[in-house]
Amino acid sequence: MRVDSSLYKAILIFLLIVGQLQVTSLAEELKVSKVKNSNIIEIKDIKGGVQKIETIDKPLPGSISALDESKVLKGKIENQAEFHVLNEIQLNINDVTGPGKASSSLSDGVKYLENINFYGKGNANKLDYNFNLGGRFTNDDMVDNRSMSFTTLQGRLKYKDHILNAGDVFESFSQYSLSSSLKGTSYKFNNSADNLPDVTLVYGYAYPRWESFVRLADTRAVQRMGYGVNVRHDITPTLTTGLSFLRTQDAERQYSSERLYDNNIYSMDYEYKPIPGLTVRGESAFSHADQDPEEGLKNFSYFGHAHRIEAIGDGGPSRVNLEYERVSPKFETLLGAASQDRQKARAKWRYKYNKNITFNSGLLWYMNNLSNADRSVQSYRPEFDVNIRRLFNRRYSQANVSLKFDKKSGYGSRNFDYFTNFNYRDRFGFLETDNSFGFTSFNTNKNRREAYDYNYRTSLGSRHSLGMFVIKPSVNAGTNFIDDEITNKIDKIVEYSAGLGLDIPKHKITSNFRFGQNLLDSGTGDNSNKIFSSISLYYKPSFLGMFNSSTIYVRASVNDFNFQTRTRNFAEKSISMGLNIPVDLFIGKKKVDRI
User: Is residue 450 packed enough to be buried (19+ CB in 10 Å), middle (13-18) or exposed (0-12)?
Assistant: First the structure.
């Protein structure tokens, strides 16, 4: 929007005069008016004084009129370039003993782990850029089977309406066509000012990690290449549509029975807002796939389609979602998201009765085996919950009651399960509590399954300030009883723990200690007894100069697993020491004259 030159100058002059007023006159109410048919600005105060200032016809240098720009942010200071490094180094000393130590999730011995990330951004003339590089170094096979690996490689260039991405590319065409990341490149043209459509081109490989490019033995994967185009346009202020094409080609199977695909996806998605508070969105997609099932077998082709539509109504205290989807048995998407051979309908309703009471309800129905009715299975999942704040007029209280059902029928079987849960949180004086009780019933016909699960969880905690210290004691306890009516067996699980947090905010120290026990009395398997304890200390030192944002930490834990079958027993002892070092570097300063 263009601003009138004389008004612009009047505002500048007004601000200059106000800046020269004495402190005692700052409360005076000023009224600014422009004399009719002249370039005279009158400034009047409440005492009746008048100052007349004649404006200049020529636009001020740097004004919007002089620059003839629609958007100007004059005088803002930003960095021409900035770089950030985050390096986390961790040393782990693990000791795993016992005949069952193969079940441990820890690697025995001394292990190191380093995660390092480089991020930078800046601009040169009208070219904006940013990049993100990440790597990991470790000798712990539980973390990564490679000692050195890339975790992130990403770069971005933007020039006016053109955007180029390379490396880890996250372009989303639509749900059915492309909703996965690729390792490659993408180009996007975005010019809403001239009402032109947005165009996105993408090319890349769906490798799980960067090392797969060099075909190392321990990182090899199917070479899944994808490329396509998406065109999106606002046809009207209330209607947006998108057209997508995506081609996926597989090569280099890793074992003889691995399937390879050559797949095309054609998709159209839309979003329509006919009235305020109502949104209708959906998508239709069609696929053509050539499948190479395995070595020695003949390729075959098939076609499929998928459709979904969703309506969202949001107004007043209610929000309603209605959704329908049908995916044919032969619809194939390799880089999108869809459940083959399924039809589903979903409804959700949220109603806010008042600021303290909210109701939520929903129903999900779906069926599979669309082409074979005799083998199809239908599922119904209704649910309801109510959330109440300030129950009994208590300030910190919050209660939630939920009820869910899961009914499946078809193909010779039927089951009906239901889940109930009650949760209540509150604060009594200095004591904070969180309690929940749940009951689940599992029922399958023909005496295949009939079981009941009772569970209870409680936690108590408080926070106390004693001088420079903050003390946070806590207690947690929980139990599960699983009653199997078919086998007449009961599994009992009990777990409890106590913790103590000690913080020193003045010195940026945070610490926590916890000790507990988990007991399993199994009616069908091994009984077990697990004793666990842990301690952690985090410290942000203030003597490291430019590295004052660094964090030093030490963590230690002991886990002792004892089973009824003694050959399964093992114990874990672990100490971790780490340092988190962020480094920020800013280069150059400049005044911004654009947004």
Answer: middle
Alpha helices in 21-172 (DSSP H): 64-67
Show the tokens assigned to 73: 């942010």
Q: Which residues pair with 93 in a beta bridge?
A: 110, 575
Cβ atoms of residues 80 and 123 within 8 Å: yes
Contacts of 494 (CB under 8 A, 6+ apart): 478, 479, 518, 519
Residue 102 CA to residue 108 CA, distance in Å, equals: 10
98-105, long-range: CB < 8 A, 24+ apart: 98/561, 98/569, 98/570, 98/571, 99/566, 99/567, 99/568, 99/569, 99/570, 100/561, 100/563, 100/567, 100/568, 100/569, 100/570, 101/570, 103/561, 103/568, 103/570, 104/570, 104/572, 105/142
Whether the full predicted model's pTM is greater than 0.70, yes or no, is yes
Question: Residue 346: how many CB atoms within 10 A of its CB?
Answer: 16
Tokens of 514: 């916890």
State whether residue 190 is helix, strand or coil: coil
> 266 and 289 in contact (C-beta within 8 Å)?
no
SS3 at position 10: helix
Q: Convert the pLDDT of each residue in 262-298 to its tens digit.
A: 999 999 999 999 999 999 999 999 999 999 887 778 8
Q: What is the pLDDT of residues 329-357, one digit of tens each?
A: 999 999 999 999 999 999 999 999 999 99
359: CB partners within 8 A, 6+ apart: 349, 350, 351, 352, 353, 384, 385, 386
Determine contact, residues 349/360, Cβ cutoff 8 Å.
yes
Q: CA-to-CA distance for 379 and 384, rounded, in angstroms?
A: 17
Rounded to whole angstroms, the Cα distance separating 405 from 508 reads 48
Q: Tell me how long the chain is.
A: 595
Q: Are 572 and 106 in contact (CB under 8 A)?
A: yes
Among 459, 432, 452, 542, smallest CA distance to 492 is for 452
Rounded Cα gap, residues 503 and 583, in angstroms: 25
Helix, strand, coil shares of the chain, percent, nearest 5, are 10, 60, 30
Residues 534, 507 contacting (CB under 8 angstroms): no
Q: For every residue of 110-136, which 3-state class applies, written as one string?
A: EEEEEEEEEEEEEEECCEEEEEEEEEE
- In angstroms, rounded to a whole number, what is the distance separating the alpha carbons of residues 127 and 119? 17
For residue 225, CA distances in Å to 214, 257, 305, 531 come to 15, 20, 22, 49
SS3 164: strand
